[in-house]
Amino acid sequence: MLALGIALLVALLVPLLTRGSYKRLLGTKVRWGWLLAAGLAIQIGLEFASPPRRYWHNLGFGLLVASYVLVLAFCARNVVLRGMSIVLIGIACNALVIVLNQGMPVKIPPEWRNQTWTEANVKHHPQQPGERLLVLSDIIVVRHPFDTVLSYGDLILAVGLCDVAYNASRDPQRRRKKVRRALAAQAAAAPPPANGNGTTPSSARHSETTV
After folding, report:
1. pLDDT at residue 30 above 70?
2. Which stretches of 49-200 are DSSP H helices?
3. Which helix or strand (DSSP H or E) is residue 104 part of?
4. Which of 151, 163, 204, 211 suits 25 as a labelling partner, its CA being 20 to 30 A distant?
5. Helix, strand, coil % (nearest 5) of the chain?
6. pLDDT tens profile 113-136
7. In a domain, 180, yes or no
8. How far apart are CA 116 and CA 120, in angstroms?
9. Could you report the per-residue pLDDT of 49-101, keeping only the tens digit for each?
10. How far apart are CA 192 and CA 198, in angstroms?
11. Is residue 59 domain-resident?
12. Residue 151, CA atoms < 13 Å, CB-side half-sphere
């Protein structure tokens, strides 16, 4: 959840740093927002009110998978938004590893193993021999001051959120006008088309007057 929080914070700073509009960003129309709210609520609940350990691999794992299904469905429904496809890929990478290993394997440095915040829970557990697709698991160690471990899916998700925030805070009319101006400038700079004899109309007229 720390990685998601940092990604959201960075994404919210994007309009400020790129002179975008928070009004346009907040006014962006999204579909089926209740899916995202329900999925995040389940994950937050599992993070801070984890069921007893004997239920981790049945009830807990079932709720975790359900939360990802909800979030992925939300992203798929809103994939028309620029950047949302990147968000979808990032979340799908994390979901795939979690489904294959009944939780997200985490590469924990030796000096962190006695810390309480590195203990296993419903969603995360230390890497175990024989687990699958570890290249997409939490293997990117970020030390002080964050002291966390990220996956490539987390990084893709962060890039996608920034892309969504950037494009949603832009004025689409202004973007279209800019494209039209660029096309007009290219057309003006292009040489005139040649005639069948390989000469341009202007050169042909010049040769006629000099005969």
Report:
1. yes
2. 61-77, 84-101, 152-168, 172-189
3. strand 104-106
4. 151
5. 65, 5, 30
6. 888 778 899 999 999 999 999 999
7. no
8. 9
9. 888 999 999 999 999 999 999 999 999 999 999 999 999 999 999 999 999 99
10. 12
11. yes
12. 26
- For residue 33, what are the domain limits? 2-173
**Distance separating the N- and C-terminal Cα atoms of the chain:** 81
> How far, in Å, are 60, 88, 109, 132 from residue 56 at the CA level?
4, 26, 24, 19
Task: Return the residue matching tokens 């202004």.
Answer: 174
What is the rounded distance in angstroms from the CA atom of residue 204 to the CA atom of residue 198?
10
Mean pLDDT of the chain: 87
List C-alpha distances in Å: 156 to 6, 22, 114, 130, 209. 13, 23, 30, 25, 65
pTM: 0.80
Number of structural domains in the chain: 1
The reply to whether 184 falls in a domain is: no
